[in-house]
Design goal:
The longest helix is centred in the N-terminal third of the chain and has 17 residues. The chain has one domain: TIM Barrel, CATH 3.20.20.70. Strands 1-2-3-4-5-6-7-8 form an 8-stranded parallel beta barrel, surrounded by 6 helices. It is an alpha/beta fold and about 220 residues long. The protein is built from 10 helices and 8 strands. The protein binds SN-glycerol-3-phosphate (G3P). The site of SN-glycerol-3-phosphate (G3P) has 14 residues, from β8 and α9.
């Protein structure tokens, strides 16, 4: 089933109590429309959100530390205990050097968390595919948060990423994101081989997030 991952980032509309409300909307739409919707929330909101919804809740950040003296770090085991199902790694707003990505993937898998690893180019996605994450998401940074979508502005990036990733490991679902706003963006992404989309501002900043989500879902049909 194709996936819509709604990344709450640090948007005010998706922080604290509002994160819970938005996650409930995502859950409602997922159930009513029978589609797969994950939410990625600020780590401080994971416990509260995951208590209130049954859809998968992802962390936006993890540190590959172990129990002990690591002040200020986000321990993978803690994410699990607080209700996370997975984690976004290497988002363009939270980048890592390639050499640390493999370790993070292994570390989160060891505690049962899924990994969605982001990267800006088809080449970097290809390199990450060798580390066998659960999902790879290509997101061109210059389009993130804007009105021009990756689907319409950089369609070749999606097809090239799918080709390169699947040449390494055909079992890894490829996602894409940046500027996704309507069903046409989703439809084009899927047609190009993407198995879902990451979306943030199109939902978090929408006047009516439920209507905005339902609009995206039309592209899955
Ligand atoms: O992780 C999703 C994200 O970076 C895309 O953001 O605001 O362009 O949908 P946005």
């Amino acid at each position: 089933m194709s996936l819509i991952l709604v990344n709450f980032k640090t948007y005010k509309q998706a922080t604290g109590e509002r994160a819970v409300e938005l996650a409930k909307i995502c859950e409602k739409v997922a159930k009513e429309e029978d589609v797969e919707i994950f939410v990625a929330v600020q780590n401080a909101d994971i416990f509260h959100v995951s208590q209130e919804v049954s859809i998968p809740v992802f962390a936006e950040h993890v540190d590959p530390v172990t129990y002990g003296a690591h002040t200020g770090k986000d321990l993978p085991e803690s994410l699990v205990e607080n209700g996370a199902s997975g984690v976004i790694i290497n988002h363009s707003e939270d980048q890592l050097e390639l050499r640390y990505i493999e370790n993070d993937i292994k570390r989160v898998r060891s505690v049962g968390l899924l990994s969605v690893v982001c990267a800006p180019t088809a080449e970097s996605c290809e390199a990450i595919a060798a580390f066998a994450p659960d999902y790879i998401a290509v997101e061109p940074p210059e389009l993130i948060g804007g009105d021009a979508s990756v689907s319409k502005s950089r369609p070749e990036l999606i097809s090239d990423t799918v080709k390169r990733v699947h040449a390494v490991d055909s079992s890894i679902p490829v996602l894409c994101g940046a500027g996704i706003k309507d069903h046409e963006d989703v439809r084009i992404a899927l047609k190009l081989g993407s198995e879902g989309v990451l979306v943030a501002s199109g939902i978090t900043k929408a006047e009516d997030p439920e209507a905005a989500l339902k609009e995206l879902i039309k592209g899955l049909r």
